[in-house]
Amino acid sequence: MNKQKTYFTKAGLARTNEEIICLQEEIRTCNMKIGVTVELDNDLRENPEFMALRNKAEYELPKKIQELAKLVMCKEIIEDMPHIRDNLCSYIEVGHQVTLIDENNNIRELTILGYGDSNPKENIVSYLTPIAQQLLNHEIGDEVNLISPHGDTLYEIEKIIVSPLLNKR
Q1: Strand, helix or coil at 94?
Q2: pTM above 0.90?
Q3: How many helices (H) and strands (E) does the chain have?
Q4: Average pLDDT over all residues of the chain
Q5: What distance in Å separates the CA atoms of residue 117 and residue 114, rounded to the nearest whole number?
């Protein structure tokens, strides 16, 4: 069975594990509310609150937990990857910070991190995003046409470094 890896930073994995715990707690809370609803109403078939809680506790939340658990099960920690440990930056990979320059000498820096790490305000993108996919495996000097909602821009890759945002303990 071919399982696709999911790349996580250590912090991203901790957030995802915490989300799973919160979802499990939410199921417990829904089940307690279901119990209260059952005590108050004999005919549950026509109780929309009961039906919504039951659907959430039995289907929606477990499905989300299962999806997250699958991702965690196939995890690879970015900080532990050989190119990060050995500071290898010959081409763009997950965990790198990339400096791009356009034809007007405008500089743009992007950091490519793991699942759930995107923060556009800080120029951090997940490896799953279209912009990261356009950059991965390119080298210094390569030109890439980045497609965005604001239009296409041609950039030259000027610099690739291991992201200083990674906790490489």
Answers
A1: coil
A2: no
A3: 5, 7
A4: 91
A5: 6
